[in-house]
Amino acid sequence: MLPSRFLSLLPIMIIILTFYLAALPAECQESRAIVKLSIPGTDTVYSTPYRIAQERGFYADEKIDFQILGGVRTGPSVQMLVAGTVDATQTVGPTTLAAILQGAPLKIVMVFNDKPSYWLYAKKGVRSFSDLKAAKIASSTPGSTNDRLLKIVLEKNGINWRKDVSIIYIGTADVRIRALLAGSVDGAVLTLPGNLVAKDSGFVELASFESEIGALTGGVATSEPFLINKRDIAQRFLRATLKGLKLFSSDREGAARVMAKYMSISQEAALRTYDASIHVFVADGMLSEDFQQKVLDFELKAMASDKKLARDKVFDFSIIKSLAVK
Question: Which of 39, 57, 104, 237 has the maximum number of C-beta atoms within 10 A of its C-beta?
């Protein structure tokens, strides 16, 4: 028989053990780092590397609780990053650069593409840019990548965007394609798969923006405090994301399945979207120093800024480079 003294302590020991066991899941949860990422609008082809990493358990393998905050426009997305509401953002274009110019401690640490995938589509009957006089053209937000590209392309084709057309800022890509299909606007800047929908519906492709070298659309921007104070977490997060990017590049069918799920499109549409976009993606998440300079030159010119920025004030691929070596 057990000693009476032990028996008298048994209820207390059971209570202590119960609390300890109950606390174990919480402790395990706390040991997992939470990383929050904002994406502009809804899921697109450029958020697919994140989703692949999520679906394949790459973040979980790195002990990261990965959370995506969607439906955020580019401006607020960067503001959230500066404020520390999120740890990273997919927004790596002019909005991020503008924040850096104003002194925000941000860095672009990974890129998904080296060419933009935007198209200008117009209503049936429009055959040339000259037919756009007095037209209403849908864009996302002032200063966004597609907005700046739209203005550059219009000017190259003899259209004064301040006088000859009305640029209507109506939000994300899904809103723009719906407005074009409904006839609410005469033209719209579209991305995949909206341009394929417009093409199938008989709308006119006036221009592709892919030739405008230097415009970034997808990748990872984060804050310097995150890179410095949470270096290990940043490395784990980027390692998982890089795996997602590489799998996107190498697994067409698998990538299309993920796209179909998160973009709410058919598998056939996902495969067409993949085939139309894969050539603008990079495989290693980095840009050469020459290309980094092209990006800065393009963005600063588009912003009509006379300021100069050193590459290392904007880009920091040190973690991605270290991962490539391993």
Answer: 237
Burial profile 186-198: b = 16 or more Cβ within 10 angstroms, e = fewer: bbbbbbbbbbbbb
**Quick one: pLDDT at residue 25?**
46
pLDDT at 247 over 50: yes
281, 74 Cβ separation under 8 angstroms: no
CATH homologous superfamily for the domain 119-208:
Periplasmic binding protein-like II (3.40.190.10)
Question: Model-level pTM?
Answer: 0.81
Q: What amino acid is encoded at 120 in this protein?
A: L
Helices and strands (H, E) in the chain, number of each type: 14, 10
Across 14-34, average pLDDT: 49
Predicted local confidence at residue 67, as pLDDT: 96
Q: pLDDT tens for residues 108-135?
A: 999 999 888 889 999 988 989 999 989 9
CA distances, 237 to each of 38, 75, 91, 167, 279 (Å): 14, 23, 17, 38, 25
Q: SS3 letters for 49-92?
A: HHHHHHHCCHHHHCCEEEEEEEEECHHHHHHHHHHCCCCEECCC
- Locate 100 and state its tokens: 């850096």
What element of type H or E holds 167?
Answer: strand 166-169
Distance CA 236, CA 242 (A): 10
287 contacts 220 by C-beta, under 8 angstroms: no
What tokens does 247 get? Answer: 């799998």
- Given this chain, do its domains 32-115+215-325 and 119-208 carry the same CATH topology? yes
Residue appearing with tokens 């092209």: 294
Domain ranges of the chain: 32-115+215-325, 119-208
- Structurally, at CATH architecture level, domain 32-115+215-325 sits in 3-Layer(aba) Sandwich (3.40)
